[in-house]
Amino acid sequence: MSENKPVRFGILGCAEIARKVSRAMRLAPNATIQAIGSRSIDKAKKYASENGFPDSAKVYGSYEAVLDDPEVDAVYLPLPTSLHLKWAVLAAEKKKHLLLEKPVALNVSELDKILEACESNGVQYMDATMWMHHPRTAKMKEFLSDPERFGKLKSVHSIFSYDAGPEFFKNNIRVKPDLDGLGCLGDAGWYCTRAILWAADYELPKTVTALREPELNEVGVLITCGASLSWGDGRIATFYCSFLTNMTMDITCGGTKGNLRIHDFVIPFQENVGQFYTASKSTFAQLSLGCGPIPSEHAVTTDLPQEALMVSVFAGLISSIERNDSKPEKKWPAISRKTQLVLDAVISSIQKGFQPVEVGN
Amino acid sequence: MSENKPVRFGILGCAEIARKVSRAMRLAPNATIQAIGSRSIDKAKKYASENGFPDSAKVYGSYEAVLDDPEVDAVYLPLPTSLHLKWAVLAAEKKKHLLLEKPVALNVSELDKILEACESNGVQYMDATMWMHHPRTAKMKEFLSDPERFGKLKSVHSIFSYDAGPEFFKNNIRVKPDLDGLGCLGDAGWYCTRAILWAADYELPKTVTALREPELNEVGVLITCGASLSWGDGRIATFYCSFLTNMTMDITCGGTKGNLRIHDFVIPFQENVGQFYTASKSTFAQLSLGCGPIPSEHAVTTDLPQEALMVSVFAGLISSIERNDSKPEKKWPAISRKTQLVLDAVISSIQKGFQPVEVGN
């Protein structure tokens, strides 16, 4: 890959989510779609055509062929989670940078194999958690980092739920134990967990305790669950995720001096602008006849949707590695791993009858 | 008390909160301030004058004198919780209707003695949970009861926190083990618990599990805590309350078909109007490029502040009892008792090392 040329992406599989991410690759100025591979070449051809892939994009009848294409710099891997270990490791071994759809692995031991393969092959790893890249996220972090406006973090509550509907419960990979075995925890809970870690500056909690009475489908996959997290220093967090509850995508952070709320953190209601709400030094009015301030709305606009920014940031890191012969950025694998560690602790707590579980390293 | 005459209130003690509630008595069309008693008659005189009591209001140098005044129909009791049992029972025995400030008692066994005294003396009991009486609360309940707009309740999260400040931690009754021994749980947690029960149509949860790592002050009073509640049927709730976290007063309800959010449920930002926010049948846009609907704001105006409505409802019940020689309304003692049962379960769970506790009857 020569300097100033866009990073060339290969896509493994014809996942629904890849429609959105391939659009992001078309929108990102420093990325292009180089190839797609599916076990069915006809499916891949149809998919490429439906999703506006450039004529130059190669269409392959296997995942291997994408990995073997020397013109593919980076791979986007949206396959079911149970296939991540195999294909992510293979991609890294073929020296392809890896944009890995979440949930990234079935557990941290699998993820560690993936991360080791990426590190030893000098390729960049990033999980495809889009909201991290919305400029709103940085603006919110500014607020949370402000000792005057927010103070010290005390509490976080996060919710990601949606009413998935009957078709989903019949056919979606997210409710199949052999495909996405972490169910709603891996899907929606991934975001809640990431939101909590993000608010806590990625400091792992000491203990994680699953909420009692998660809901499972008839084949034992989680379809509603939650947990509480504690850091041992007065910070606590809770989250709730479900495939059965109307769409809610909230983060509520409480600090000693302020609070922050957001209601569409995973996918903004609107593509070009995202809101969040803050209040600082709130007090009761005289005689407690009211209180204030009324939370302020902050609207953050973005020229590119968050998923295009994600692709662009990832491609930028790759260009920098290639240009400078430098090492991959370690932040992204580190926070991905921490997210997985918390998910693992939730599963472990459920298995141990909702006892508190120390978060691993 | 003759028909159409306002209910005549006696107030026990010169509590800060009674300034607001005595104002409410002046605003409510069917109530009047008849008397106030304090252990110091000078303090009571000053208080009556500062708070615009009518000239006709009696000022007594003891609580007993208020209870012995035959022209007092009802007593408002805002004393520290540790004194509630004694004075509430005495008030009931003197045939005074009882508006009891929260937290109503140190535990349900104390509350039961109060409720028994009220019942056997035929007096109305109500706890002073003001937000129950805001017309917004009824509007929100309409939404939660709508099978199309909200569906079945799945989750509730409630927060009530405020940054109480150094003066509070030195002197306030809410952090003194011999006065308000339930600390932030009895104060702020009372509202969260009531909100959750309200959302669940006052069905008690099966189990309550305290969140780990509550914070205590140096004399062992709770200053931050939380809990999860479960009903055993897929409904779960969590709450967080604190004296250390910037003011937040949220209820977030998730149903199968909708959600509801409110950010000032305890004390509305503004006295004459209260907002809440709902969304129904939310879905992702095509390709998940957005989602909707954006939550709708509902603004509910009120001519009288919620505390005046509370006084008015309470006075109305009393008038009805006196007029018709009928029994007191049982709803109010029942929901007060359920709230106390949940608080007791939180305390018990903390004492048992954060194990789940079955909620008593």
Can you tag this structure with a few keywords?
homodimer; 361 residues; alpha/beta; Rossmann fold; 2 domains; globular
Question: What does this protein look like?
Answer:
- The structure is a homodimer of 361-residue chains.
- Chain A is an alpha/beta fold.
- The first copy, chain A, folds into two domains: 149 residues, NAD(P)-binding Rossmann-like Domain (Rossmann fold); 191 residues, Dihydrodipicolinate Reductase, domain 2, CATH 3.30.360.10.
- In chain A, 34% of the residues lie in helices and 27% in strands.
- At the A-B interface, helix 1, strand 7, strand 10, strand 11 and strand 12 of A face helix 1, strand 7, strand 10, strand 11 and strand 12 of B.
- Chains A, B: Belongs to the Gfo/Idh/MocA family.
- Chains A, B: This is Gfo/Idh/MocA-like oxidoreductase N-terminal domain-containing protein.
- Chains A, B: It holds the Pfam family GFO_IDH_MocA.
Topology record:
The structure is a homodimer of 361-residue chains.
Chain A: E1 7-12, H1 17-27, E2 31-37, H2 41-50, E3 58-60, H3 63-68, E4 74-77, H4 84-93, E5 97-100, H5 108-120, E6 125-127, H6 135-144, E7 153-163, H7 165-171, H8 183-199, E8 207-210, E9 215-216, E10 222-230, E11 236-242, E12 244-255, E13 258-262, E14 273-280, E15 283-284, E16 291-292, E17 296-301, H9 306-324, H10 331-351, E18 357-358
Parallel strand pairs in A: 1-2, 1-4, 2-3, 4-5, 5-6, 7-11
Antiparallel strand pairs in A: 7-12, 8-10, 8-18, 9-10, 10-11, 12-13, 13-14, 14-17, 15-16
Helix pairs in contact in A: 1-9, 4-5, 5-10, 8-10
Family (chains A, B): Belongs to the Gfo/Idh/MocA family.
Protein name (chains A, B): Gfo/Idh/MocA-like oxidoreductase N-terminal domain-containing protein
GO molecular function, one term (chains A, B): nucleotide binding
